Amino acid sequence: MTVLEANSAASFMQISTSDANLGHIDHFKQFLYSMQEARRSIVKCILEKVDVPKDLILVLESTLRMLTDSRTVGFQRKMRTQFDTFTLNIKDEIIGLKKDLEILSRYKNGSLEASELETVLANFHPISPEKFVEELDACCSFLVDYVESAQPERENRKPLFITDWDGTMKDYCSQYATNLQPIYSAVCMAGFAQEFTRLAAVLTAGPLRGPGILDLTALPIDGPLLFSGSWGREWWLDNHRVVQDEGISEEGIDALERMKDEMGILLKTGEYSQFALVGSGVQRKVDRLTLGVQTVCGHVPAALSERYQEEVRERMHRVDPYNQILVFDPSTELEVEVVAHSSGSVWNKANGVSRVAEIKGDSLRAPGRVLVCGDTMSDVPMVQQAKHENPGGVMALFVRPSEKIRESVLAVVGDPTRVCFISSPDVFHAAAARLLETKSELD
Ligand SMILES: [Mg+2]
């Protein structure tokens, strides 16, 4: 075990000794973040093809034991804040750990057969194990076309891979703050990016940190995938956060920072502390704060959610007394946004997708294909942008799209052989594992 791994296991043990406090949300979050450190160390071992230290597996096992103890009933767990109790749905956290442990138990001599991974994941498919196999076969032939489009005669002309995160590469989780990526997902994505792409990037709506994608992923954050948050307005490049804040005034950025501080104080006070774990929690994006106000299960009493939103407006008034900088946008039933006024056009993922290529001195243009993965309407502009720049090379893989999104994607790409629909991120992960295995057998 390296020093890093030893520290990770030791700090976990320290936290887990305060098990009695795990009913408190702050301990609960810290406990899971500490477990995620162990997951990252395990991913590193697997990618380096070295044995996974037993202590790290123990961290995962004891986390699962804790999450499924008598305080969790039907995936619902009662939690405490300083003044109140509330309920969290921790199904995604539990299922992720179950899959990881089952898959890790099948690891032999530093490797895992793709068929073993498929056996485990098939049972978790949202429709049926048979449907999993059917989608997996289709996804594999789709990805074979993608991989074989590489042009070895042109130096490093492998295709591009640009993907959304939530709902596409990661199953949805009730609370953003503990939406943690499992190990198998990170291993499959890293292998795919490394072997088959010249540039692979994650483009998510959430922020990079605080918590953000860099805190929640189990992938190494410095490659082989490039991470971006806030719809491609912030990037993690060479160990630095690079921000694209054109169109947002200095006052806007300053007001958002102060607003975030105000929210930090608000969440430490009494009844509102649970909102750190309600849906989106508090996400500081480049041009806005996104605030969760209700869970998908409707766990938050309506009156409490109302009072919280009133408090948010009150904090906005403190920061921006003349209503000149910040706008309150009640976006959905589950979240509201505090947005800094911006001049110029509205930023969407199409801007982000072009920026990713530019940032790396590359482009979406031919020669070479571009695979865009997503699950919602906000991902369709990425496909449109790729189509615009590379009409013959755009490919799209969408996870559980609605009928309307299916039609849009097919219409944009204009060639059904370059479109693939699957029902779960796991189908992509298993397909990537199969392709990697075939490649290593050929090498
Ligand atoms: Mg999504």
Looking at this protein, list some descriptive labels.
single chain, 443 residues, alpha/beta, Alpha-Beta Plaits, eight-stranded mixed sheet, 15 strands, binds magnesium ion
Summarize it.
With 443 residues, the chain is an alpha/beta fold.
Give the secondary structure arrangement, pairings included:
Elements: H1 3-17, H2 25-47, H3 54-67, E1 72-73, E2 76-80, E3 85-89, H4 91-104, H5 114-122, H6 129-148, E4 160-163, H7 183-196, E5 199-203, H8 213-216, E6 225-229, E7 234-237, E8 240-243, H9 250-268, E9 282-284, E10 288-292, H10 302-319, E11 326-329, E12 335-340, H11 349-359, E13 370-374, H12 380-389, E14 394-399, H13 403-413, E15 419-422, H14 425-442
Parallel strand pairs: 4-5, 4-13, 5-6, 13-14, 14-15
Antiparallel strand pairs: 1-2, 2-3, 6-7, 7-8, 9-10, 10-12, 11-12
Helix pairs in contact: 1-2, 1-3, 2-3, 2-7, 3-4, 5-14, 6-14, 7-14, 9-10, 11-12, 12-13
Bound molecules: magnesium ion.
Magnesium ion (MG) binds next to loops.
Describe the structure in your own words:
The chain has 443 residues and is α/β, with parallel strands linked by helices. Among the domains are: 1-112, Up-down Bundle (Methane Monooxygenase Hydroxylase, Chain G, domain 1), CATH 1.20.58.1800; 250-340, Alpha-Beta Plaits (2-Layer Sandwich), CATH 3.30.70. Helix content is 45%, strand content 15%. The chain is built from 14 helices and 15 strands. It is globular and about 65 Å long. The model has no long low-confidence stretch (mean pLDDT 89). The structure holds magnesium ion. Residues 164, 166-168, 375-376 line the site of magnesium ion.
